[in-house]
């Protein structure tokens, strides 16, 4: 199993975060706080009318104050529960939502690149992750 001490885990999470932030449009909340991929994931899953346990879990953690921290916790939750590919795929289903959040260079806007990314993420479902949540 992959644990918190694994170098591969840190590399994987950094790459996932890079993908989710690459060419992400800058958006701000009503109070001026910069939105991040966490907000994209929440909105994407809400549009699919999916009540995601990972979203509920992360929002229940009082220690997490920033969208970036919540996004990282969500990625870890999804890795542990083998839900990362499915969760991301649900967020990528709506082309209008994608265009609202990402500029044209985002790999998520390319059907071929999106399929390759999701294929790789589905392969991670075979890996056991034992991470502190």
Automatic annotation (TrEMBL):
<keyword id="KW-0175">Coiled coil</keyword>
<dbReference type="GO" id="GO:0005776">
    <property type="term" value="C:autophagosome"/>
</dbReference>
<dbReference type="GO" id="GO:0005770">
    <property type="term" value="C:late endosome"/>
</dbReference>
<keyword id="KW-0458">Lysosome</keyword>
<protein>
    <recommendedName>
        <fullName>RUN and FYVE domain-containing protein 4</fullName>
    </recommendedName>
</protein>
<comment type="function">
    <text>ARL8 effector that promotes the coupling of endolysosomes to dynein-dynactin for retrograde transport along microtubules. Acts by binding both GTP-bound ARL8 and dynein-dynactin. In nonneuronal cells, promotes concentration of endolysosomes in the juxtanuclear area. In hippocampal neurons, drives retrograde transport of endolysosomes from the axon to the soma. Positive regulator of macroautophagy in dendritic cells. Increases autophagic flux, probably by stimulating both autophagosome formation and facilitating tethering with lysosomes.</text>
</comment>
<dbReference type="GO" id="GO:0006914">
    <property type="term" value="P:autophagy"/>
</dbReference>
<feature type="domain" description="RUN">
    <location>
        <begin position="3"/>
        <end position="133"/>
    </location>
</feature>
<dbReference type="GO" id="GO:0005764">
    <property type="term" value="C:lysosome"/>
</dbReference>
<dbReference type="GO" id="GO:0008270">
    <property type="term" value="F:zinc ion binding"/>
</dbReference>
<dbReference type="GO" id="GO:0051050">
    <property type="term" value="P:positive regulation of transport"/>
</dbReference>
<dbReference type="GO" id="GO:0071353">
    <property type="term" value="P:cellular response to interleukin-4"/>
</dbReference>
<dbReference type="Pfam" id="PF02759">
    <property type="entry name" value="RUN"/>
</dbReference>
<keyword id="KW-0072">Autophagy</keyword>
<dbReference type="GO" id="GO:1901098">
    <property type="term" value="P:positive regulation of autophagosome maturation"/>
</dbReference>
<keyword id="KW-0863">Zinc-finger</keyword>
<keyword id="KW-0479">Metal-binding</keyword>
<keyword id="KW-0968">Cytoplasmic vesicle</keyword>
<dbReference type="InterPro" id="IPR004012">
    <property type="entry name" value="Run_dom"/>
</dbReference>
<dbReference type="GO" id="GO:0007033">
    <property type="term" value="P:vacuole organization"/>
</dbReference>
<dbReference type="GO" id="GO:0072383">
    <property type="term" value="P:plus-end-directed vesicle transport along microtubule"/>
</dbReference>
<dbReference type="InterPro" id="IPR037213">
    <property type="entry name" value="Run_dom_sf"/>
</dbReference>
<keyword id="KW-0862">Zinc</keyword>
């Amino acid at each position: 199993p992959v644990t918190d001490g694994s170098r591969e885990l840190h590399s994987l999470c950094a790459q996932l975060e890079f993908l989710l932030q690459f060419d992400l449009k800058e958006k701000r909340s009503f109070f001026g706080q910069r939105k991040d991929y966490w907000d994209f994931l929440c909105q994407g899953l809400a549009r699919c009318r999916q009540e995601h346990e990972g979203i509920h879990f992360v929002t229940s953690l009082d220690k997490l104050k920033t969208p970036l921290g919540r996004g990282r916790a969500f990625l870890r939750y999804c890795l542990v529960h083998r839900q990362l590919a499915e969760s991301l795929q649900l967020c990528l289903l709506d082309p209008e939502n994608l265009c609202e959040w990402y500029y044209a260079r985002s790999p998520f806007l390319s059907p071929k690149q999106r399929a390759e990314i999701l294929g790789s993420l589905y392969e991670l479902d075979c890996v056991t992750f034992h991470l502190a949540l």
